[in-house]
Write a sequence for this structure.
């Protein structure tokens, strides 16, 4: 409902009289005498908070990607085998993925502000402690626990962004910036990590701690109280607060942990081994069990509401969302090791050859990503991103040695980065403007 002015008008029931309703304009949101009316902070404060959430997301992703270029140095310091080294990035990614959905539900039930502060602080404290690990076992445990901290801050930051930017256009822009920060962090992990390795791999984690801990403390004062961001009363659509689905949480977490554990083992012991096949089969079997359970319980309590599958093309979008992560992981792991082990480049040499990825990522984020939908609809943007990703794969397939860097690797990196970042941005928005 819109008024004659540019202010936003909302029709909400007044708390003092269930039978009455009134039209509340955007400027009325400043009054705090009615607990049902959300009170938005100033525009400047909201954009500062978006910068804080974006930084947190950047550090969460960068904590995983920067480890790839440091694997050789870490393995030498802690006497780790190649099979053990794979668990440095995988233990972090495994716990991040396994607890992401659960963290989102905790954020929904409790305070997203509290969950964000705990997760961001958790990331900083463990990153500070991780370089002091006396042995490889301690390091791998701390890496896994750090992934849990990262999983807490991501969904809670998204929830806070949605509350802080209720205007659809502002919200879409804010979420796109948040999503793009993860893509840029993925791209810059090798670049910045290679520079930091001139000193020591320890500084990769200490820099994360030096940034995240002060910002986590600042967020305690900057993030508004949850009561000021959303109504405190229940609606007819949601007559009560959701409850924690413990069985669903167990099924979902176990499914992801077992499946990823099996995939990781396949790289070290082979596919035809019991250590690979058993967790893979159990992980695949538990996921439909999890979905079945979600359909049986009250939708308010479900971690994944069955109604989400009624959204047009949601499964296709979900599949497309996985491709950027796979692409950047393969690029970083394979080519960083290839350039150092076979082509004789040092970490700085590797970082310089990955630098164009960051440049292209910045261009896509700042300019191409904001072309209005009236010029290029969602379907054409997704098709364009997929085409660039496919072109990248063809070029990289014919990059046989270091002499093909400028002819094959560089254009392949640039095409793939532009295409996959566009896919990540568009699928993260779930925009229905097609």
């Amino acid at each position: 409902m819109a008024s004659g002015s540019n202010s936003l008008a909302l029709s909400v029931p007044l708390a003092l009289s269930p039978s009455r309703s009134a039209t509340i304009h955007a400027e009325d949101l400043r009054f705090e005498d009615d607990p049902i009316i959300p009170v938005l902070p100033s525009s400047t404060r909201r954009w500062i908070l978006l910068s804080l959430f974006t930084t947190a997301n950047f550090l969460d992703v960068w904590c995983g990607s920067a480890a790839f270029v440091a694997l050789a140095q870490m393995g030498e310091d802690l006497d780790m085998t190649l099979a053990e080294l794979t668990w440095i990035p995988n233990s972090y990614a495994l716990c991040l993925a396994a607890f992401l959905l659960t963290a989102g539900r905790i954020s929904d039930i409790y305070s997203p502000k509290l969950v964000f502060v705990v997760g961001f602080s958790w990331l900083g404290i463990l990153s500070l402690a991780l370089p002091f690990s006396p042995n490889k076992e301690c390091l791998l445990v701390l890496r896994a626990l750090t992934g849990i901290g990262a999983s807490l801050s991501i969904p809670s930051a998204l929830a806070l962004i949605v509350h802080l930017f209720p205007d659809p256009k502002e919200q879409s822009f804010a979420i796109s910036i948040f999503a793009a920060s993860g893509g840029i962090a993925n791209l810059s992990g090798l670049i910045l990590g290679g520079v930091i390795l001139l000193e020591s791999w320890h500084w990769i984690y200490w820099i994360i701690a030096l940034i995240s801990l002060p910002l986590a403390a600042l967020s305690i004062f900057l993030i508004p109280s949850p009561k000021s961001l959303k109504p405190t009363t229940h609606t007819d659509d949601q007559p009560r607060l959701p409850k924690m689905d413990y069985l669903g949480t167990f099924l979902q977490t176990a499914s992801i942990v077992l499946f990823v554990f099996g995939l990781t083992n396949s790289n070290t012991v082979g596919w035809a081994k019991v250590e690979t096949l058993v967790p893979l089969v159990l992980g695949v079997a538990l996921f439909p069990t999890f979905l079945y359970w979600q359909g049986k319980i009250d939708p308010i309590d479900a971690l994944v509401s069955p109604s989400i599958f009624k959204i047009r093309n949601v499964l296709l979008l979900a599949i497309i969302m996985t491709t950027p992560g796979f692409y950047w992981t393969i690029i970083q792991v394979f080519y960083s090791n290839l350039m150092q082990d076979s082509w004789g480049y040092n970490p700085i040499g590797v970082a310089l050859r990955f630098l164009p990825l960051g440049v292209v990522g910045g261009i896509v984020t700042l300019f191409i990503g904001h072309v209005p939908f009236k010029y290029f609809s969602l379907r054409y943007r997704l098709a364009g991103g997929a085409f660039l990703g496919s072109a990248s794969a063809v070029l990289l397939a014919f990059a046989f040695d270091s002499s093909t860097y400028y002819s094959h690797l560089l254009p392949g990196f640039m095409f793939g980065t532009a295409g996959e970042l566009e896919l990540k941005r568009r699928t993260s928005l779930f925009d229905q403007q097609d």
